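1st attempt posting a full record on here, be nice pls
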Amino acid sequence: MARFAGRLATGLREVAHDPAALDRGGFWAVALDFEGRLTCARFDEVRPDPAPPATHNWRGPDPDSWHSSLDADAYRAGVRRIREYIAAGEVYQANLCRVLSAPLPDPERTDVDALTGLLAAHNPAPYAGTIRLPEHGVEIATASPELYLSRHGRTVRSGPIKGTGRTEHDLLDKDYAENVMIVDLVRNDLGQVCDTGTVTVPDLCAVEKHPGLVHLVSTVEGRLHADAGWPQLFDATFPPGSVTGAPKSSALRIIRELETAPRGPYCGAIGWVDADRGEAELAVGIRSFWIERDTGRPVLKFGAGAGITWGSDPDGEWRETELKAARLVAIASTGTPA
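the predicted structure (as tokens):
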């Protein structure tokens, strides 16, 4: 099943791994890992179902059992290393992330849709949703605030987030500069698949309030080439610029060097495509939980990161990842915010 935008999709018809399937027709749930693993699930029935699910099928991990792929010292060292790359002229900005993981204590109470209900109650988000396909290795509950791509006919739109603080007064000049750099990158990405002269920036560095924090959000949109479909869109824009860096190729190389765990659904794309209506809404997979069962015992995972620029302070960037994780990890662990 899948749940997005007040709709519940059931009756799994097929699973595909080729993005061209998304241009064929039907309603699809989409999960694209940061590393490139694509799972598209087509469903027979889609009906309104705005009510969050019951939560009795969820028992979260012990709050003290979470482990980070990068501890505080390693993360700060990574920030310093990225600043060295910036000083050498190899990159302007790179996103440094860590993956948190914790064992789930009761295999019978691991329904990610129930976790989505908890998140909806305590941390509502514009692109929240569930994809539950355990037989295909996809179990995701997202409370993402960030739009990766939407489509309405030939109009495509992206809403990159860069800049985070507890309040608007916490936002620094560095945050605004970071946002503008990524807007330029997203404009370039969309420009590869949009008609010349149609890529615009309707909103630049708007302040959005979310539970426990604020973000700077911009909007970039354009008109898709007549001969461009989902394969071309993904080729031009994935991974999202806001969670990689600029230039993207250099940032990806640095990410591979410094990060010690695959990001998986975190920083990928999560959402839905209604090919019959020519509509879609894919979020950047931030503020997202996923379950891995490879070892037999289910493990819950969650990612947190920050964009690193020359103006970054290692302690401040570590605190930003803590801010992004604290509320949601508490909800998943105890059922209530910290």
